[in-house]
Amino acid sequence: MLPLRLLRQANIARLKRCISTCSNFHSCCYLLSLKHNDNYKYFADKTKKDDKSTSNDKKDSKQDTDSSQRYEHPPNQPYDPSIGLSLMIIFGGSLLLELVNSGFYRNEITFQEFFVKYLSMGQVDKIHVVNREYAKCFIKNGKENKIVYFRIGSIEHFETRLNQIQQSLDIHPDEYIPVQYVTGVNVVNELKKFIPFGILFFLIALGFRKLMMKGPPGMDKFFRMGKAVTVQAKDLKVKTSFKDVAGMNEAKMEISEFVDFLKNPERFKSLGAKIPKGALLCGPPGTGKTLLAKAVAGEAQVPFYSISGSDFIEVFVGIGPSRVRDLFENARKNAPSIIFIDEIDAIGKKRARGGFAGGSNDERENTLNQILVEMDGFKSSSGVVVMAGTNRADILDPALVRPGRFDRTINISKPDIGERYEIFKVHLKPIKFSQNTDVDDLARRMAALTPGFVGAEIANVINEAAIVAARRKAEDGVEMRDFDAAVERCIGGMVRSSGLLSNEQKRVIAYHETGHALTGWWLEYADPVLKVSIVPRSSGALGFSQQMPDDIALFSKEAILDKIAVILGGRAAEEIFIGKITTGATDDLNKVTKLCHSFVSQWGMNAKIGLVSYNTEGEQDFYRNYSESTAQMIDNEVKNIITAQYERVKKVLCDKADLVHKLSNLLYDKETLTYHDIANCVGERPFPPNEKYKAFIEANPHKIAVNSSN
């Protein structure tokens, strides 16, 4: 045991060490703060310098800035004062406990001092043995201290020695110093046990704080999983307006009324009208449903919340309904507002019968139920309009599309030739053209070359044309040939090496495609021929004959028979002018067989089958809704129609064999022919095209020579 003076010196030394440690720690935190702030300042200065040095190249600078914001972070984040403060509290608390604990035993003495100074002098009143570890002695008439402590070893040894000393002092046993065994709790020691756990908890909390920091490496999305992650128009600064949306005139008229509802609600309320709760945009992929929603965001000038249907569903149960509630709550707070849910079929499919679907599907149904409640829960005058887009309207739940939720269903179909012309004019604005290009004639020609194309495909064609021009290192701009190559690229794929074909094979393909083209050229109800090519493509096609079908799918019996004849024209030309047939007509025979089956069994155009319709689309192969004899009759009539039209085509080609040879040789040499090339070779088509399509079909790219403003 150390003497009291040495114990006090040890406590003072311990205190100095703790103070020194805290001082050093505070200095380290201060230096760390300066270091982090310097690095952050250096990073900010460096970013400004880089932005200034790259200001001449605006697009590259924007891309680099977006990339750095998305994937890069400063090497050292700015120092967070709360971290140093927390560590100071931990170390300060440890120091305080140490000081309190050392002060608690400031009157600790040795057993020898206890015997000499107190026990032999008769100043001990009583002794408490605390926790069988140390003796707490109460001194009577003490001038220095009232209570002193000393450690004991074994209890039996302590009692034996204490009795021996009292016997040696001639103290009667009845007057022995009373010894009492008590149990006490040292609060300081108990608190010191929790210091390691406190440090561990602090480190865990610090780690979670780092993980929750926003950015790609963080876990902020994990802790915000129940919140709806929407894209607001005010954050995007949407500049799209209805002027940027070409075509879709009827859809724009209907959707623009929602904007008027939100801007001038009193004009409608004065007449007793209520603001519709929702609009469902339906149409094939790429027709511009999302673009129309962006135009609404740009025109409405109200809060616009955009979210995808798949964003509601996560791996955890209950996330979907929670996000729906959060989305509508934010929309109501900022009313009037618009909510746009893209691809709503991801959560709006028809619910299973019986109300139970099991698994993740059950979570989807819970999300759908929450949407139904939210849409039917707020009043029509609340100023919240819900818009949704889908290309699978047939699979949506009836409760979702009923009036009162989605009051309007706006169908957006594929653009016709006039709408394609308008769409091309919009997308051609940023393109640089050669000086002798007339954009109006170019857009008209491209609208004729892209039947059935939607807005997204048209934008892709224009982008491909610009890429083709850049590939050939064009200096004057994009030309018509680049657009022709882009259309062929989108239809048939990349050009393959012509060396794959021998001269004989190339000759066969030339006659095959000539048969298609001239059959359509000389038949009244056939679609006008726009282009013929025998250039092999990466899709596997060795050639193609492009025609322009009517935008309105209403065909007479004569028109369908002419279509069948045009499809058979390639095989007939091979047989007549080559003397042998090839497998090149495989796809043609497949198409003509399906067309004839529909002609006989669905459209009621066959006299023998009669006015009946046996629609087998979507049914299983082993199931038919007609007898075996009827099936045999249908097969026989299909064969008869194909045979009759094949003989008809052969007669047409044989009667004008010289023109077939002439056009085939021209196609063999040039490999690609346009409408005007065919007209110059075999003469004008005896049946003029529809006046509505005439300007588009007869647009000659070789005569475009008007200066363009672009």
CATH superfamily of the largest domain: Peptidase M41
Number of helices: 26
What amount of the residues lies in strands?
5-15%
Q: Low-confidence segments, ≥5 residues, pLDDT <50?
A: 1-10, 21-77, 214-218, 355-360, 701-710
**Number of domains in the coordinates?**
4
Number of strands: 13
- Helical amount among residues, as a percent range? 40-55%
Please, what is the oligomeric state? Answer: single chain
What structural class do you assign from the helix and strand content? alpha/beta
Tell me what the CATH architecture of the largest domain is. Up-down Bundle
Shape: elongated
Give the CATH level 1 class of the largest domain: Mainly Alpha
Average pLDDT across residues?
A: 77
Distance between the termini: 100 Å
**Which strand order does the major sheet show?**
5-7-8-9-6-10
Query: Radius of gyration, Cα only, in angstroms?
Result: 45 Å
Walk me through what this model shows.
The chain has 710 residues and is an alpha/beta fold. The chain folds into four domains: 77 residues, name from scop (3-Layer(aba) Sandwich), CATH 3.40.1690.20; 161 residues, Rossmann fold, CATH 3.40.50.300; 76 residues, Helicase, Ruva Protein, domain 3 (Orthogonal Bundle); 194 residues, Methane Monooxygenase Hydroxylase, Chain G, domain 1 (Up-down Bundle). 54% of the residues lie in helices and 9% in strands. It has 26 helices and 13 strands. A six-stranded mixed β-sheet has the order 5-7-8-9-6-10. Strands 3-2-1-4 form a four-stranded mixed β-sheet, covered by helices on one side. A hairpin with a 7-residue loop joins β2 and β3. α3 runs antiparallel to α6 and α18 crosses α19. The longest helix has 50 residues. The protein is elongated and about 155 Å long. The N terminus and C terminus are likely disordered.
